Prior knowledge:
The chain is an all-alpha fold. 62% of the residues lie in helices and 2% in strands. It has helices at residues 17-29, 36-43, 47-54, 57-74, 86-102, 105-113, 119-123, 128-143, 159-175, 177-181, 186-190, 193-201; strands at 5-6, 77-78. The chain has a two-stranded antiparallel ribbon with strand order 1-2.
Amino acid sequence: MTSIRHITPEVEVVPDPILDAARDVIMTHGPRRATLTEVARQAGVSRMTVYRRFESFDRLMSALLTQELAVILTGMPRPGAGEGTARSRAVDIIVAGTGAIAGHPLVTRVLAVDPEYLTPLMVSRFGQTQRSAAELLTPLLSEGMAARGGDGSVRDADPAALALACVTAVQSFVFAGPALSVLPEGPSVREQIRPMVDGMLRPDTEGVRP
């Protein structure tokens, strides 16, 4: 595997007592039993202060997830340019990112106690984190497409669509984390992310003999 560097400097998260309190409340009670009132009490502010900023607990939860996972995405280890093909670098990012998000304490807690809370992210919309992940991948995939002047390691396609396809494919490994954790085959299943993504990105003619 190629050596790893950071894609960008890690996000400097400005302390936010409301989001900090929301994290603590969710980790204790889960999102379904958490309330704005409890978050406000723990943050030491009025409920109206929380309500004015977020309007509902769902929006507060969304803001918290976006902040927490943005730290992962922007601090994502990434192989340096020139260290392997664009495809191998993209695969490394996707594998590392999937593992980091699946193992994030907030994600694992929500999936353990209220998995249905994240159902909309699977079936009805892409969240900000999913869109950000695709945006991170898109230029790297372009670097691998021969039709775009790249190294030819990635099949020619719409890079934004291919990035979203990769995110869609691997997010099942995040949402299935609790189920995989109790299976003896779980670790082996997770190891299939790498060849699966590599196959998605590989040029159609690679390895085909004339």
